[in-house]
Specification:
This protein has 240 residues and is α+β, with helices and mostly antiparallel strands. It contains six helices and nine strands, in the order αββββαβββαααββα. The strands form two sheets. Strands 1, 2, 3, 4, 5, 6 and 7 form a seven-stranded mixed sheet that branches. Strands 8-9 form a two-stranded antiparallel sheet.
Length: 240
């Protein structure tokens, strides 16, 4: 084998970091591998890229094959190419991520995915391969992204309170207590959050309040679709 030919002996894979929100904690979708290597270990939904397919197509295919999820917008994050990251040989992986509303999708494990479940991000165990590193990298990307573009349009009910919107931001941006009980970051200041979010003109005050709640009813809001799409396209700074 010539020196040049040796450069064509590496494989490529894709790994999907699917973050989910259901009104509570930020979660990530993991599969339990039913095949070697790392059989029985939890991992990100990932697999090798076919020689005749592009990376984006591979990411969509692998996600559907392993979890049943279709129609998920996937954003490419970065490549991971440590020489020894895969025990069977040189495999360079490209990570993708997304943030979805959990209740909008049904998870159906298949192929070598023995099972597929949502896990709270702060309770993820040691994963197969270098998937903890990939997860951490995608989480950092998600946290940077929510400071530059609005979120919540597809994650919250059509009518929501400012508290519900703040809880979404806190679920993503705030590091909770770890497994050993160490304190994470404090929550977002309520007054500062409301002042900042209302200054974007991103919300419509519906002049309605919650119904059927035990506490004092809170005001209900709705996203301004045109303003939301404008800020997604142009970006903004949301330092809180």
């Amino acid at each position: 084998m010539s020196e040049v030919e040796s450069f064509f002996k590496s494989a490529f894979s894709v790994d999907n970091v699917i973050f989910g929100f259901d009104g509570g904690d930020l979660k990530v979708l993991l599969i339990q591998r039913g095949a070697a290597p790392y059989k029985g270990k939890w991992a990100l939904p990932g697999d090798l890229v076919y020689p005749n397919e592009d990376l984006d197509t591979a990411a969509e295919r692998v996600l559907e094959q392993l979890t049943g999820l279709r129609g998920v917008y996937l954003e490419q994050v970065k490549a991971f190419g440590a020489v020894d990251r895969h025990p069977l040989g040189r495999v360079i992986t490209i990570a993708y991520f997304s943030l979805i509303k959990i209740s909008d999708y049904t998870v159906t494990p298949a192929s070598f995915a023995q099972s597929a479940k949502w896990h709270a991000v702060n309770k993820v165990v040691e994963l197969a391969f270098d998937h903890n590193e990939i997860l951490d990298s995608c989480l950092r990307r998600l946290r940077r992204k929510v400071r530059m573009t609005p979120i919540g349009f597809e994650l919250l009910p059509p009518k929501f309170t400012l508290t519900e919107l703040q809880h979404l931001y806190e679920a993503i941006l705030i590091q909770p207590k770890d497994k050993k009980g160490k304190n994470g970051n404090k929550g977002i200041d309520k007054r500062n959050f409301r002042k900042k979010i209302l200054s974007t003109n991103l919300l419509h005050d519906l002049n309605e309040v919650q119904e059927g709640v035990a506490h004092r009813p809170a005001k209900l809001y709705q996203f301004d679709r045109s303003k939301y799409e404008q800020l997604v396209a142009e970006g903004y700074s949301f330092d809180i």
